[in-house]
Design a protein that fits this description.
With about 160 residues, the protein is α+β, with helices and mostly antiparallel strands. It has one domain (about 25-155): Histidine kinase-like ATPase, C-terminal domain (Heat Shock Protein 90, 2-Layer Sandwich), CATH 3.30.565. The chain has 4 helices and 7 strands, in the order βββααββααββ. It has a 5-stranded antiparallel β-sheet with strand order 3-4-5-7-6, with helices on one face. Strands 1-2 form a two-stranded antiparallel sheet. β4 (about 80-90) and β5 (about 95-105) form a beta hairpin. α1 packs antiparallel against α2 and α2 (about 60-80) runs antiparallel to α4 (about 130-135). It is globular, with a radius of gyration of 15 Å.
Length: about 160
């Protein structure tokens, strides 16, 4: 049993459903509110399980879990909570995991500066956002002052 109860399993689309052997590509694996430290811990466990089901090797599992943890923690701390979604995707015959983190915080006023290692608006080391971007294959940010932030990141499985 995961801390803070089991994760919410919310279908991303009406037609998506999980199977007994794991998610089908295109299924949302989790939709997790980010309201507490326990939510962040549960999210790490769910992401690790999804990387295993998608066949990622240990190094890529660690990359994805680390990126997910950094992005979720940023939303929790700087965005005053948010929502994390994890989806198994398929494109051009490849399978990947897509992380989506949204919050309704103050937004990121200077995105270029936010990616610079060492920059922080809090008490952290300032490596989270830039580090998460480097760990993933695709990384997209939508933000506006006073409108919150949404980050979508994808890691593709390079294993056959």
């Amino acid at each position: 049993m995961l801390p803070h109860g089991d994760l919410d399993k919310t279908p991303h689309t009406p037609s998506s459903a999980s199977t007994a052997t794991g998610p089908e590509p295109g299924d949302t694996v989790t939709a997790q509110p980010l309201r507490s430290e326990e939510d962040l811990l549960a999210l790490r466990h769910a992401v690790r399980a999804a990387t295993l089901r998608a066949g990622f090797g240990l190094v890529d599992q660690t990359r994805i879990v680390t990126a997910a943890s950094e992005l979720a923690r940023n939303a929790y701390i700087h965005g005053h909570g948010g929502i994390f979604e994890l989806e198994t995707i398929r494109r051009a015959g490849r399978i990947g995991l897509q992380l989506s983190v949204s919050d309704r915080g103050p937004g990121i006023p200077d995105l270029d500066t936010a990616f610079v290692d060492g920059f922080t608006t809090g008490s952290g080391l300032g490596h989270g956002l830039g580090g998460a971007r480097r760990l993933m294959d695709e990384f997209h940010v939508r933000t506006a002052p006073g409108q919150g932030t949404t980050i979508v990141a994808v890691r593709w499985n390079s294993r056959p």
